[in-house]
Design goal:
By secondary structure, the protein is an alpha/beta fold. The mean pLDDT is 97. It is 52% helix and 12% strand. The structure holds nicotinamide-adenine-dinucleotide (NAD).
Length: 351
Protein backbone atom coordinates (compact mmCIF):
# COMPACT_ATOMS: atom_id res chain seq x y z
CA UNK A 1 0.00 0.00 0.00
CA UNK A 2 1.83 3.05 -1.24
CA UNK A 3 -0.31 6.08 -2.02
CA UNK A 4 -0.96 9.74 -1.18
CA UNK A 5 -4.51 10.78 -0.32
CA UNK A 6 -5.45 14.44 -0.03
CA UNK A 7 -8.39 15.30 2.23
CA UNK A 8 -10.20 18.53 1.29
CA UNK A 9 -10.69 21.09 4.11
CA UNK A 10 -14.38 21.70 4.69
CA UNK A 11 -16.95 21.83 7.48
CA UNK A 12 -19.86 19.44 6.97
CA UNK A 13 -22.98 20.00 9.03
CA UNK A 14 -25.88 17.52 9.01
CA UNK A 15 -28.83 19.42 10.49
CA UNK A 16 -32.19 17.78 9.73
CA UNK A 17 -35.07 20.28 10.01
CA UNK A 18 -32.60 22.90 11.20
CA UNK A 19 -31.00 24.48 8.11
CA UNK A 20 -31.80 28.12 9.00
CA UNK A 21 -29.90 27.95 12.29
CA UNK A 22 -27.02 25.97 10.80
CA UNK A 23 -26.61 28.38 7.85
CA UNK A 24 -26.64 31.35 10.22
CA UNK A 25 -23.93 29.71 12.38
CA UNK A 26 -21.74 29.01 9.34
CA UNK A 27 -22.09 32.56 8.00
CA UNK A 28 -21.25 33.94 11.47
CA UNK A 29 -18.06 31.84 11.50
CA UNK A 30 -17.05 33.61 8.28
CA UNK A 31 -17.74 37.06 9.87
CA UNK A 32 -19.68 37.94 6.71
CA UNK A 33 -21.73 41.16 6.59
CA UNK A 34 -22.91 41.26 2.95
CA UNK A 35 -24.19 37.86 1.91
CA UNK A 36 -25.18 37.07 -1.67
CA UNK A 37 -27.73 34.25 -1.93
CA UNK A 38 -27.66 32.13 -5.09
CA UNK A 39 -30.78 30.09 -5.77
CA UNK A 40 -33.02 29.22 -8.69
CA UNK A 41 -36.44 30.90 -8.89
CA UNK A 42 -38.27 27.70 -7.86
CA UNK A 43 -36.37 27.69 -4.55
CA UNK A 44 -36.70 31.45 -3.92
CA UNK A 45 -39.39 31.14 -1.23
CA UNK A 46 -37.40 28.42 0.51
CA UNK A 47 -34.25 30.55 0.34
CA UNK A 48 -36.11 33.51 1.87
CA UNK A 49 -37.28 31.40 4.78
CA UNK A 50 -33.84 29.90 5.38
CA UNK A 51 -31.89 33.15 5.27
CA UNK A 52 -34.05 35.67 7.15
CA UNK A 53 -31.47 35.81 9.98
CA UNK A 54 -28.61 36.69 7.60
CA UNK A 55 -27.24 40.09 6.50
CA UNK A 56 -28.45 39.56 2.91
CA UNK A 57 -27.03 42.04 0.39
CA UNK A 58 -28.45 40.46 -2.75
CA UNK A 59 -30.50 37.46 -3.92
CA UNK A 60 -29.34 36.20 -7.31
CA UNK A 61 -31.80 33.84 -9.01
CA UNK A 62 -30.46 33.40 -12.54
CA UNK A 63 -29.33 29.77 -12.35
CA UNK A 64 -28.83 27.69 -15.53
CA UNK A 65 -27.64 24.08 -15.70
CA UNK A 66 -23.95 23.65 -16.72
CA UNK A 67 -23.23 27.36 -15.94
CA UNK A 68 -23.07 29.24 -19.26
CA UNK A 69 -20.24 31.81 -19.13
CA UNK A 70 -22.62 34.75 -19.63
CA UNK A 71 -24.64 33.63 -16.59
CA UNK A 72 -21.44 33.35 -14.55
CA UNK A 73 -20.33 36.83 -15.66
CA UNK A 74 -23.63 38.40 -14.58
CA UNK A 75 -23.44 36.68 -11.18
CA UNK A 76 -19.83 37.88 -10.71
CA UNK A 77 -20.92 41.46 -11.53
CA UNK A 78 -23.78 41.19 -9.04
CA UNK A 79 -21.36 40.00 -6.35
CA UNK A 80 -19.08 42.99 -6.95
CA UNK A 81 -21.97 45.46 -7.09
CA UNK A 82 -23.51 44.22 -3.85
CA UNK A 83 -20.08 44.18 -2.13
CA UNK A 84 -20.69 40.54 -1.21
CA UNK A 85 -18.26 39.05 1.29
CA UNK A 86 -19.78 35.54 1.29
CA UNK A 87 -22.02 33.41 -0.93
CA UNK A 88 -24.77 31.07 0.21
CA UNK A 89 -26.04 28.69 -2.49
CA UNK A 90 -29.38 27.00 -1.94
CA UNK A 91 -30.37 24.46 -4.60
CA UNK A 92 -29.08 21.60 -6.71
CA UNK A 93 -25.77 21.21 -8.50
CA UNK A 94 -26.65 24.11 -10.81
CA UNK A 95 -26.94 26.64 -7.96
CA UNK A 96 -23.78 25.27 -6.33
CA UNK A 97 -22.04 25.42 -9.71
CA UNK A 98 -22.87 29.11 -10.13
CA UNK A 99 -21.58 29.91 -6.64
CA UNK A 100 -18.36 28.08 -7.53
CA UNK A 101 -18.02 30.12 -10.74
CA UNK A 102 -18.26 33.33 -8.68
CA UNK A 103 -15.80 31.99 -6.10
CA UNK A 104 -13.35 31.06 -8.85
CA UNK A 105 -12.76 34.70 -9.86
CA UNK A 106 -13.57 36.51 -6.61
CA UNK A 107 -12.23 34.12 -3.97
CA UNK A 108 -15.44 34.61 -1.95
CA UNK A 109 -16.21 31.84 0.58
CA UNK A 110 -19.26 29.66 -0.16
CA UNK A 111 -21.71 28.03 2.23
CA UNK A 112 -23.54 25.38 0.18
CA UNK A 113 -27.02 24.14 1.04
CA UNK A 114 -27.78 21.28 -1.35
CA UNK A 115 -31.30 20.31 -2.34
CA UNK A 116 -30.35 17.40 -4.65
CA UNK A 117 -27.88 14.50 -4.43
CA UNK A 118 -25.49 15.92 -7.08
CA UNK A 119 -22.60 16.25 -4.61
CA UNK A 120 -20.93 19.26 -6.22
CA UNK A 121 -20.74 20.90 -2.76
CA UNK A 122 -18.06 18.42 -1.64
CA UNK A 123 -15.72 18.79 -4.63
CA UNK A 124 -13.19 21.38 -5.74
CA UNK A 125 -14.30 20.95 -9.37
CA UNK A 126 -15.87 23.84 -11.29
CA UNK A 127 -17.63 23.74 -14.67
CA UNK A 128 -18.44 26.45 -17.23
CA UNK A 129 -20.08 26.12 -20.64
CA UNK A 130 -19.30 28.22 -23.71
CA UNK A 131 -21.67 27.36 -26.56
CA UNK A 132 -21.82 23.55 -26.64
CA UNK A 133 -18.45 23.01 -24.97
CA UNK A 134 -18.28 22.46 -21.25
CA UNK A 135 -14.93 23.04 -19.55
CA UNK A 136 -14.15 21.79 -16.07
CA UNK A 137 -11.23 22.48 -13.80
CA UNK A 138 -9.99 21.96 -10.27
CA UNK A 139 -9.35 24.91 -7.97
CA UNK A 140 -9.17 25.14 -4.18
CA UNK A 141 -11.06 28.47 -4.25
CA UNK A 142 -14.30 26.82 -5.40
CA UNK A 143 -14.54 24.25 -2.60
CA UNK A 144 -17.35 25.48 -0.33
CA UNK A 145 -16.06 26.36 3.15
CA UNK A 146 -19.08 24.68 4.68
CA UNK A 147 -21.96 22.43 3.67
CA UNK A 148 -25.29 22.43 5.46
CA UNK A 149 -27.22 19.22 4.76
CA UNK A 150 -30.85 19.33 5.83
CA UNK A 151 -32.64 16.24 4.52
CA UNK A 152 -36.05 17.88 4.96
CA UNK A 153 -35.20 20.21 2.03
CA UNK A 154 -35.12 17.22 -0.32
CA UNK A 155 -38.65 16.10 0.40
CA UNK A 156 -39.97 18.43 -2.33
CA UNK A 157 -37.73 16.88 -4.99
CA UNK A 158 -39.98 14.91 -7.38
CA UNK A 159 -39.39 11.16 -6.94
CA UNK A 160 -38.04 10.70 -10.50
CA UNK A 161 -35.47 13.43 -9.81
CA UNK A 162 -34.52 11.89 -6.45
CA UNK A 163 -33.91 8.62 -8.30
CA UNK A 164 -31.90 10.20 -11.15
CA UNK A 165 -29.90 12.40 -8.78
CA UNK A 166 -29.26 9.49 -6.40
CA UNK A 167 -27.98 7.42 -9.34
CA UNK A 168 -25.76 10.36 -10.29
CA UNK A 169 -24.29 9.99 -6.78
CA UNK A 170 -23.94 6.23 -7.33
CA UNK A 171 -22.01 7.01 -10.52
CA UNK A 172 -19.54 9.02 -8.41
CA UNK A 173 -18.95 5.88 -6.35
CA UNK A 174 -18.52 3.55 -9.31
CA UNK A 175 -16.13 5.89 -11.14
CA UNK A 176 -14.21 6.46 -7.88
CA UNK A 177 -13.33 2.75 -7.93
CA UNK A 178 -11.17 3.19 -11.05
CA UNK A 179 -10.72 6.97 -11.55
CA UNK A 180 -7.24 8.12 -12.57
CA UNK A 181 -6.16 8.87 -8.95
CA UNK A 182 -8.29 6.27 -7.14
CA UNK A 183 -6.71 5.07 -3.90
CA UNK A 184 -7.80 2.61 -1.17
CA UNK A 185 -9.42 5.39 0.90
CA UNK A 186 -11.55 6.48 -2.07
CA UNK A 187 -12.65 2.88 -2.62
CA UNK A 188 -13.58 2.42 1.04
CA UNK A 189 -15.59 5.66 1.07
CA UNK A 190 -17.24 4.75 -2.23
CA UNK A 191 -18.24 1.32 -0.93
CA UNK A 192 -19.87 2.82 2.18
CA UNK A 193 -21.52 5.45 -0.04
CA UNK A 194 -23.02 2.72 -2.25
CA UNK A 195 -24.39 1.05 0.88
CA UNK A 196 -26.07 4.33 1.93
CA UNK A 197 -27.48 5.02 -1.53
CA UNK A 198 -28.58 1.43 -2.07
CA UNK A 199 -30.57 1.49 1.16
CA UNK A 200 -31.70 5.12 1.08
CA UNK A 201 -33.09 5.39 -2.44
CA UNK A 202 -35.69 2.60 -2.14
CA UNK A 203 -36.82 4.20 1.12
CA UNK A 204 -37.41 7.47 -0.75
CA UNK A 205 -39.52 5.82 -3.45
CA UNK A 206 -41.50 3.98 -0.77
CA UNK A 207 -42.01 7.11 1.35
CA UNK A 208 -40.99 10.33 -0.47
CA UNK A 209 -42.26 12.55 2.35
CA UNK A 210 -40.36 10.67 5.07
CA UNK A 211 -37.05 11.98 6.35
CA UNK A 212 -35.17 8.69 6.79
CA UNK A 213 -34.64 7.82 3.11
CA UNK A 214 -33.44 11.34 2.28
CA UNK A 215 -31.06 11.37 5.26
CA UNK A 216 -29.49 8.06 4.31
CA UNK A 217 -29.23 9.07 0.65
CA UNK A 218 -27.63 12.43 1.53
CA UNK A 219 -25.06 10.64 3.67
CA UNK A 220 -24.27 8.36 0.71
CA UNK A 221 -24.21 11.26 -1.74
CA UNK A 222 -21.74 13.21 0.42
CA UNK A 223 -19.35 10.25 0.78
CA UNK A 224 -19.70 9.56 -2.95
CA UNK A 225 -18.65 13.09 -3.83
CA UNK A 226 -15.67 12.98 -1.45
CA UNK A 227 -14.46 9.75 -3.04
CA UNK A 228 -15.02 11.11 -6.55
CA UNK A 229 -13.24 14.41 -5.84
CA UNK A 230 -10.15 12.47 -4.82
CA UNK A 231 -10.25 9.75 -7.49
CA UNK A 232 -10.94 12.08 -10.43
CA UNK A 233 -13.18 11.55 -13.44
CA UNK A 234 -13.21 8.03 -14.83
CA UNK A 235 -14.69 6.88 -18.12
CA UNK A 236 -18.29 7.27 -16.95
CA UNK A 237 -17.89 10.97 -16.17
CA UNK A 238 -15.98 11.62 -19.37
CA UNK A 239 -18.82 10.09 -21.41
CA UNK A 240 -21.53 12.07 -19.58
CA UNK A 241 -19.49 15.26 -19.77
CA UNK A 242 -19.24 15.05 -23.58
CA UNK A 243 -22.88 14.03 -24.07
CA UNK A 244 -24.22 16.68 -21.68
CA UNK A 245 -22.28 19.48 -23.38
CA UNK A 246 -22.93 18.36 -26.99
CA UNK A 247 -26.65 17.71 -26.70
CA UNK A 248 -27.65 19.79 -23.66
CA UNK A 249 -28.89 16.68 -21.83
CA UNK A 250 -30.17 16.78 -18.23
CA UNK A 251 -27.24 15.96 -15.96
CA UNK A 252 -28.67 13.49 -13.43
CA UNK A 253 -30.74 11.48 -15.93
CA UNK A 254 -27.77 11.15 -18.31
CA UNK A 255 -25.66 9.68 -15.49
CA UNK A 256 -28.48 7.36 -14.45
CA UNK A 257 -28.81 5.97 -17.99
CA UNK A 258 -25.11 5.57 -18.81
CA UNK A 259 -23.98 3.99 -15.51
CA UNK A 260 -24.97 0.31 -16.10
CA UNK A 261 -23.26 0.33 -19.50
CA UNK A 262 -19.93 1.55 -18.12
CA UNK A 263 -20.17 -0.87 -15.22
CA UNK A 264 -20.83 -3.77 -17.64
CA UNK A 265 -17.78 -2.78 -19.69
CA UNK A 266 -15.36 -2.29 -16.78
CA UNK A 267 -16.42 -4.67 -14.01
CA UNK A 268 -14.93 -7.83 -15.63
CA UNK A 269 -11.57 -6.01 -15.73
CA UNK A 270 -11.75 -4.50 -12.22
CA UNK A 271 -12.09 -7.33 -9.67
CA UNK A 272 -11.77 -5.17 -6.53
CA UNK A 273 -14.44 -2.74 -7.77
CA UNK A 274 -16.65 -5.69 -8.73
CA UNK A 275 -16.35 -7.20 -5.25
CA UNK A 276 -16.89 -3.94 -3.36
CA UNK A 277 -19.92 -2.85 -5.41
CA UNK A 278 -21.51 -6.31 -5.19
CA UNK A 279 -20.92 -6.44 -1.41
CA UNK A 280 -22.36 -2.97 -0.84
CA UNK A 281 -25.46 -3.85 -2.88
CA UNK A 282 -25.70 -7.29 -1.21
CA UNK A 283 -25.77 -8.97 -4.60
CA UNK A 284 -23.78 -11.82 -6.23
CA UNK A 285 -22.35 -9.41 -8.84
CA UNK A 286 -22.02 -5.65 -9.20
CA UNK A 287 -24.09 -5.51 -12.37
CA UNK A 288 -26.88 -7.68 -10.95
CA UNK A 289 -26.95 -5.45 -7.84
CA UNK A 290 -27.22 -2.30 -9.92
CA UNK A 291 -29.88 -3.85 -12.17
CA UNK A 292 -31.98 -4.91 -9.15
CA UNK A 293 -31.70 -1.45 -7.57
CA UNK A 294 -32.58 0.28 -10.84
CA UNK A 295 -35.60 -1.99 -11.32
CA UNK A 296 -36.86 -1.19 -7.80
CA UNK A 297 -36.45 2.53 -8.48
CA UNK A 298 -37.89 2.47 -12.01
CA UNK A 299 -34.73 4.24 -13.17
CA UNK A 300 -34.37 6.06 -16.51
CA UNK A 301 -33.12 3.80 -19.30
CA UNK A 302 -32.65 5.55 -22.66
CA UNK A 303 -30.78 8.66 -23.80
CA UNK A 304 -33.21 9.05 -26.70
CA UNK A 305 -35.89 9.92 -24.11
CA UNK A 306 -33.85 12.94 -22.98
CA UNK A 307 -33.27 14.58 -26.36
CA UNK A 308 -30.09 12.95 -27.67
CA UNK A 309 -30.32 12.59 -31.47
CA UNK A 310 -29.46 9.20 -32.99
CA UNK A 311 -26.66 10.67 -35.14
CA UNK A 312 -25.17 11.96 -31.88
CA UNK A 313 -23.81 8.46 -31.24
CA UNK A 314 -21.28 8.74 -34.09
CA UNK A 315 -20.54 12.39 -33.27
CA UNK A 316 -19.69 11.67 -29.63
CA UNK A 317 -17.25 8.77 -30.15
CA UNK A 318 -14.13 10.76 -31.09
CA UNK A 319 -14.48 13.50 -28.42
CA UNK A 320 -14.99 10.83 -25.73
CA UNK A 321 -12.01 8.75 -26.87
CA UNK A 322 -9.88 11.90 -26.84
CA UNK A 323 -10.45 12.40 -23.09
CA UNK A 324 -11.00 8.81 -21.90
CA UNK A 325 -8.59 8.01 -19.03
CA UNK A 326 -5.60 5.95 -20.15
CA UNK A 327 -5.96 3.71 -17.05
CA UNK A 328 -9.56 2.64 -17.78
CA UNK A 329 -9.78 -1.01 -16.67
CA UNK A 330 -11.31 -2.28 -19.95
CA UNK A 331 -9.64 -1.63 -23.29
CA UNK A 332 -11.62 0.97 -25.21
CA UNK A 333 -11.90 1.04 -29.01
CA UNK A 334 -14.21 3.13 -31.22
CA UNK A 335 -16.30 -0.03 -31.72
CA UNK A 336 -16.68 -0.67 -27.96
CA UNK A 337 -17.71 2.92 -27.41
CA UNK A 338 -20.14 2.99 -30.34
CA UNK A 339 -21.83 -0.17 -29.04
CA UNK A 340 -22.00 1.29 -25.51
CA UNK A 341 -23.52 4.57 -26.70
CA UNK A 342 -26.03 2.82 -28.98
CA UNK A 343 -27.20 0.60 -26.12
CA UNK A 344 -27.54 3.62 -23.81
CA UNK A 345 -29.37 5.55 -26.52
CA UNK A 346 -31.81 2.70 -27.23
CA UNK A 347 -32.28 1.74 -23.58
CA UNK A 348 -30.94 -1.74 -24.25
CA UNK A 349 -29.82 -2.68 -20.72
CA UNK A 350 -26.72 -4.88 -20.29
CA UNK A 351 -27.36 -8.34 -18.87
P1 LIG B 1 -30.17 21.08 -10.87
O1 LIG B 1 -29.47 21.79 -9.80
O2 LIG B 1 -30.23 21.77 -12.21
O3 LIG B 1 -31.64 20.72 -10.38
C1 LIG B 1 -32.53 19.99 -11.25
C2 LIG B 1 -33.96 20.52 -11.09
O4 LIG B 1 -34.43 20.21 -9.80
C3 LIG B 1 -34.09 22.04 -11.23
O5 LIG B 1 -35.22 22.32 -12.00
C4 LIG B 1 -34.27 22.51 -9.81
O6 LIG B 1 -35.04 23.69 -9.73
C5 LIG B 1 -35.01 21.35 -9.19
N1 LIG B 1 -34.80 21.16 -7.76
C6 LIG B 1 -33.62 21.15 -7.10
N2 LIG B 1 -33.81 20.87 -5.80
C7 LIG B 1 -35.14 20.71 -5.62
C8 LIG B 1 -35.96 20.38 -4.48
N3 LIG B 1 -35.44 20.10 -3.28
N4 LIG B 1 -37.29 20.33 -4.66
C9 LIG B 1 -37.85 20.52 -5.90
N5 LIG B 1 -37.12 20.83 -7.02
C10 LIG B 1 -35.77 20.90 -6.86
O7 LIG B 1 -29.56 19.62 -11.16
P2 LIG B 1 -28.46 18.73 -10.40
O8 LIG B 1 -28.53 17.41 -11.05
O9 LIG B 1 -28.58 18.84 -8.94
O10 LIG B 1 -27.09 19.44 -10.79
C11 LIG B 1 -26.60 19.38 -12.10
C12 LIG B 1 -25.42 20.32 -12.28
O11 LIG B 1 -24.45 20.12 -11.27
C13 LIG B 1 -24.71 20.07 -13.62
O12 LIG B 1 -24.35 21.29 -14.21
C14 LIG B 1 -23.48 19.28 -13.20
O13 LIG B 1 -22.42 19.41 -14.10
C15 LIG B 1 -23.18 19.88 -11.85
N6 LIG B 1 -22.40 18.97 -10.98
C16 LIG B 1 -21.14 19.34 -10.67
C17 LIG B 1 -20.36 18.54 -9.86
C18 LIG B 1 -18.98 18.99 -9.48
O14 LIG B 1 -18.30 18.32 -8.74
N7 LIG B 1 -18.54 20.13 -9.95
C19 LIG B 1 -20.87 17.33 -9.34
C20 LIG B 1 -22.18 16.97 -9.68
C21 LIG B 1 -22.95 17.81 -10.50
Amino acid sequence: MRFTHETLPQRVVFAPNDAARAISDEVARLHAEHVMIITDPSSAALADALTDRLPVAHVHDEVVMHVPVEVADRAREAATKSRADALVSIGGGSATGLAKAVALTTGLPVVAVPTTYAGSEATNVWGLTRGTTKTTGVDARVLPRAIVYDASLLRTLPVELSVASGLNALAHCVDAMWGPYADPIDRALAEEAIRGLGQGLPRITADPAGLAGHEQTLYGAYLAAVAFASAGSGLHHKICHVLGGMFDLPHAQTHAVVLPHVLALNAPHAPEAERRIATALTSPTALAGLAALRARLDAPTALKDYGMPEDGIAKAVEPILAIAPANNPAPLTPDHLTALLRAAWEGDLPR
